[in-house]
Amino acid sequence: METFLTGGKSMLLAYDQGLEHGPSLDFNDKNVDPSYVMDVAIRGRFNGIVFQKGLAEKYYSGKVPLILKVNGKAALAKGEPIARQNCSVEYAISLGAKAIGYTIYLGSSLEPEMFQEFGRIQEEAHEAGLPAIAWVYPRGAAIQNDTAREIVSYAARAGLELGADAVKIKYTGDSESFSWAVKSAGKAHVFMSGGPKAPTDEAFLTQVKGAVDAGATGLAVGRNVWQHPDPVRMADSLREIIFKGKPVEVVSAT
């Protein structure tokens, strides 16, 4: 399975927030246009871009590896979260996907349905020679703190146990505790979730540095890049940390 997950570090640009959060929360007049974000992925030299199938059909240029999210949910309904499949692995491949993405809400009372669905999707992806990446987000009434060390490490381990080739998980807040999550993921690659827009560039870069120092493969980032006034410059800063191991002080000063 020779993909962007093979060896070294990776930096993925996530843009599935339109379905997950709606257009009002995350987008402005620039980044509401998927063409703008596709261009950021190219100019920012990302190793992959994450799209839902509708965006891939209409905006994917083929110039950056495609990770196709095959499930999702809207934010309007309340109650225990569940995200169901909305695209087949076969169709994702026809759109040019190099990996399959799937969100699991660990801790939801509906998690067994997502476990079962991901199991089938993972097998179909592997049969086609594609890796399966699990967004493992602890969520629901049973979860009090979704960035606690024990919760994030459980998310990482659950992804490994369910067959994910990589897991996208939230940062715990410090490198030492996040290293336990990375160890818990075993041979599954770990991507730190970029999360909501950080208060400062330095704050976000510090989180990324902590995750990389803890052993993460890299970062799957969205809003902290395409909401940035200069997204390519932010991408360049992230690359210095992820691929070259530069300290935040040096990167921030450039």
Structural overview:
The protein has 12 helices and 10 strands. It has one domain (about 10-254): Aldolase class I (TIM Barrel, Alpha-Beta Barrel). α9 (about 200-215) packs parallel to α11 (about 230-245). Helices cover about 45% and strands about 15% of the residues. The chain has about 250 residues and is an alpha/beta fold. The model has no long low-confidence stretch (mean pLDDT about 95).
Secondary structure: elements and pairs:
Elements: E1 10-14, H1 17-21, H2 23-26, H3 34-43, E2 48-51, H4 53-59, E3 66-69, E4 71-72, E5 84-85, H5 89-94, E6 97-104, H6 111-127, E7 132-136, H7 149-161, E8 166-169, H8 175-184, E9 189-193, H9 201-213, E10 218-221, H10 223-226, H11 231-244, H12 248-253
Parallel strand pairs: 1-2, 1-10, 2-3, 3-6, 6-7, 7-8, 8-9, 9-10
Antiparallel strand pairs: 4-5
Helix pairs in contact: 7-8, 8-9, 9-11
List keywords for this structure.
254 residues, alpha/beta, TIM Barrel, two-stranded antiparallel sheet
